[in-house]
Structures are given as structure tokens and as C-alpha cells.
Write a structure and sequence with these properties.
Helix content: over 70%
Radius of gyration: 38 Å
Distance between the termini: 87 Å
Strand content: under 5%
Number of domains: 1
Length: about 210
């Protein structure tokens, strides 16, 4: 466990610092506007696209605009929750909660796809650039986090392999030392003489008993 947030978490926090005020302000403006957010070109384009896609009426168009604004507001709240968790992680020197980060990034990615598709269909270059920039910001953070987690998963496996190799080497050395300790030392000439005397005495005793 790291004592400080990783690079991916810091990158996600920086991305959240952009999306929280931008999307939060857009959502509140659309929800509180007397024109239901249609003065915003991106909001009007997305609402009109889904109204035509599902064949909604005029009331359906207004409800669609409110739903889209609500989606943006929920994503802004999720990213704000991650920012709070990130700030607490920095203070107490721990990693941010992965579940909070994953949920926030998943909601943000889904919302960007919902808003980017109508912009691509409209052919408006300004809206396309805006959503493309937001998409690149978010996907960049996701890629960094994914690479970091893959590295974290590969590090324990490599450490286990190294530990197993060290254990096998230690067992081999211990076995070699045990085998060497079991080998008797070379006998001296005195040992040979005593062995011969004991053997000859035993032979004479056996002959005496047979006689």
C-alpha cells in the first residue's frame, strides 16, 4: 500500500478539477433556466438528437433536456466525491478509494459518449472539438490508471518467482551441507591398527570356542 496517491490518481484528480465546475455549472444552468437549457448549443443539440431518435413530442424534448442536465450533474457530484476522497488520502497518506474512482470514471465516460454522439451527428466543428478534448482528457486518465494497475499486478508475481528461486537455492545449499556432514572423515593409521587388533582378537575367540 502506497503512502501517497499514485500518478494515475493525481491525474484523475486534475481531470476532476476541470469537469466538476464545468459540468456542474452547465447542469445547474440547464435545470434552472426558464428556457430549459436550450440557450446552450451543446444542450440543445443533444436534446434535439434524442428527441428525434425516440420520436418525443415537445414535452418529451423538455424532459430530455432535464434528463441530460441531470446526468451531467450526477457525474459532477461523483467526481466531486472523488476529489474529497483524494484530498483525505493526501492528508492521511494513503491511496484513494478505488471503487469511488472507478465509479466516477465510468459515469464520466458514459456521459461523454452520450453527449459526443449528437455533436458528431450535427457536424458542428466547435462542439466536436469540445467533446473530443473532454474525451481525450478522460481517456488519458483511464489509460494511466490501467497501466499502473497492470504494473502493480505484475510486481507481486515477479517477487513470488524471485522468492521461490531463493528458497530453492537455500534448500540446495542446506542439502549439500547435510550430505557433507554425513561423509565420515578419513581414517588415520592408528585407527586401522586398532581395527586390525580387534578383528584378530575376535577371530581367536571364535576359534577357541569352536575348539
Amino acid at each position: 500500500m502506497r503512502s501517497f496517491p499514485s500518478l494515475g490518481c493525481v491525474n484523475a484528480a486534475l481531470v476532476s478539477l476541470y469537469f466538476v465546475p464545468v459540468w456542474g455549472a452547465d447542469a445547474l444552468r440547464a435545470l434552472t433556466s426558464p428556457y430549459h437549457g436550450f440557450e446552450d448549443r451543446a444542450q440543445a443539440t443533444a436534446a434535439s438528437y434524442f428527441r428525434q431518435l425516440f420520436d418525443f413530442g415537445l414535452d418529451g424534448l423538455v424532459h430530455t433536456s432535464h434528463v441530460l442536465a441531470g446526468v451531467k450533474f450526477v457525474v459532477a457530484i461523483a467526481l466531486a466525491a472523488y476529489l474529497i476522497d483524494f484530498a483525505r488520502a493526501v492528508v492521511v497518506r494513503r491511496e484513494p478509494n478505488r471503487e469511488t474512482l472507478d465509479v466516477a470514471l465510468l459515469l464520466a465516460g458514459t456521459a461523454i459518449m452520450i453527449w459526443a454522439w449528437p455533436a458528431l451527428g450535427s457536424g458542428n466543428a466547435e462542439l466536436i472539438r469540445l467533446h473530443a478534448s473532454q474525451f481525450l482528457l478522460l481517456t488519458g486518465a483511464m489509460i494511466v490508471i490501467t497501466v499502473e494497475r497492470q504494473i502493480e499486478q505484475s510486481e507481486p508475481a515477479s517477487s513470488r518467482v524471485a522468492t521461490l528461486a531463493h528458497e530453492r537455492e537455500a534448500e540446495r545449499r542446506a542439502g549439500a551441507a547435510t550430505a557433507q556432514s554425513c561423509v565420515p572423515a578419513a581414517a588415520s593409521p592408528g585407527d586401522h591398527l586398532r581395527f586390525a587388533q580387534v578383528t584378530s582378537a575376535a577371530v581367536r575367540a571364535n576359534r577357541h570356542q569352536e575348539a
